[in-house]
Design a protein that fits this description.
- Helix 1 runs antiparallel to helix 2.
- A two-stranded antiparallel sheet has the order 1-2.
- The longest helix has 13 residues.
- The protein contains 2 helices and 2 strands.
- By secondary structure, it is mainly alpha-helical.
- It is globular.
- It has one domain.
Length: 59
Amino acid sequence: MDLYERGDQLFDIIEPYIIMLTKADKDGYCYKLKDNAPQEVIEADKEYRSFAKDLEPIR
C-alpha cells in the first residue's frame, strides 16, 4: 500500500471529527479534531500528520 492509499484510509477515520479552521495552525493544517474524538481517531491523525506533508498534491 502506498502513502496515498494509507492517507485516504486515515482521513476516512479522521473526517467525521474534523473542525475546519479559517487559518492554518502552527503546523500548517487547516483543521483540528473535535474535543470528543476517540483515541483511535487521535492516533490516526498523528499517523496521518507524520507523513501528509511529504505527499505531492494530486493534480
